[in-house]
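To the team - 5-amino-5-deoxy-1-O-phosphono-D-mannitol complex, inputs and output below.
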Amino acid sequence: MCGIVGYVGKHKVKDILLDGLQELEYRGYDSAGIAVLQKEDFSFYKAVGKLENLIEKTADFNPEGFAIGIGHTRWATHGKPTELNAHPHLGESSFVVHNGIIENYQEIKNALVKEGKHFLSQTDTEVIVHLFEKHLKNEATPFDAFKKMLSQLKGAYAILLATKSLPDTIFFAKNGSPMIIGVTEENEKIFASSDAPLIGNANHVLYLNDGEYGYVSPDELRLFDNENKEVPLQFSTLPASKLSAQKEGFRFFMEKEIYEQSSVISDTFLGRIQDEGIAFEELDPSLFEGINEIKLCACGTSYHAALTSSYLFERYAKIRSSVEIASELRYKEPLLTKDTLFVVISQSGETADTLETLKMAKKAGLKTLVICNVDNSSMVRLADATILTRAGIEKGVASTKAFATQMSVLWMLSLFLAKARETLSTEEIQQQIQALRGVPNSVKVTDELHEKIRRLSKRYLHGHGFFFIGRDVFYPLALEGALKLKEITYLHAEGYPSGEMKHGPIAMADPDLFTIALLPKNMLYEKAKSNVEELSARDSTICAISPLEFDKADDFIKTADRDHYMLEFFEMMVIVQLLAMEISIRLGNDVDMPRNLAKSVTVE
Ligand code: M6R
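Output:
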């Protein structure tokens, strides 16, 4: 996690660093800091909490002229979110910022402490700067010291290091955490963890690969690979205008993103839904040759999209589908066979666990596909094939429109495969396409629906927990509803298969146990209804979401009478998102930046 920025140039270093951090704040917001080196003097500022605290602290700091600077916004891994643990970390005459985890930091720290080094923080990062300074004493140049330090690090990192020994230079390294270098028309250099801070500032950017490192100064940008060979610079271009998402009158980004779902789903369909079937121009047909199984892998909300799609792949394309949580797959020594298409799903394309499983699959020789919202992200650059969701920048930490577009792509992909494998007739495909076309309409938020949920939310602020229950694809949707609620309300919630409640959890039923029951008309309605009745008979408070009246419910959210269960799925998706958001607002929480979380989880 964490976001890092860096700058070498003669413009307003502070503004460039703070603006960059603002764009990266979604990656972590426990604390933030900057260090600026000018005429061999360092100035540094750190603040706990959101970036606004650092902005306030630096109000009177206005450096002019040439400077180098590094900045960081943190999501704590080692050590509490305190000022001492905030980056940049200081040595005797150098500063470092780091995103990732140094796995062997304790070993390095023990050795340095034995040699008399004093540590100020509890972080893994601090070893970087001390190790560098130790080598600075013996190596011929600061760059040699940087290289020697790197050779001793194990783990994931994106590092920027500035030192008084070479006051116009920033050393950098990337391994497993993202880093991009932008070069402006005036030959300034800007570093960032993602494109966002660079758009509008630098039109030429360099996406670093794992193992690469080097340095930048006013006149040079030199890049080396993990075999210490110099790498020729291959720049890409970025769009010139900043597409920074604004709230546009909504109270929160999450709210805006829920309302945007209809239009981003339409964008995601564009050119892909055709009269005769589904077209994915970006996919080479050879990707599916010799494939007998799909293994889907992801984290969090993207995992719920994966789980939902496994029902669709088996039902429509008659292809065996298994789903894995990335952090589990990494260490279970899985059997990965070459007749399996390995599909990772990720909004950010940077989630460390998912990225690692993609590397594992590639190493095992599997064909790989990523379904992702961020072009040029690490996963997109690594996978054999990519389908981009077109959700636009998602700022709310609680994922909404990214999930909606992932589900749109996955439903389309199941039909694309069904056609290729001839497992659905032309007529059945046509019916499915007809239903797909109804998705943008099914996710539209009406004033009436929003108001109903806003009013209802006040009844769900207490209790000893929520069970979201559903069957078939409504089970992963129940998981997703529970995750949304947990992350922004901090209330306990679980998603459960409706039919499984009687195997244990029903013991908890009482009026303070809230059951959010997903009761679609077109998928196992009678079965799911019996399960809800069992809970109602035991006095659980029931909120039923269904197009069919249900007299055993305490609260009832009526959905439209639709003729495809997937359209009911999309409509109910919006309802659980709104419910979580309205409860969170009533509880006075920060909807967009809930505690302890970050938008992009680039650590294990
Ligand atoms: O960027 P990714 O889709 O790979 O992120 C995966 C999860 O971290 C993410 O979905 C997380 O669970 C969200 N906060 C859920 O709202």
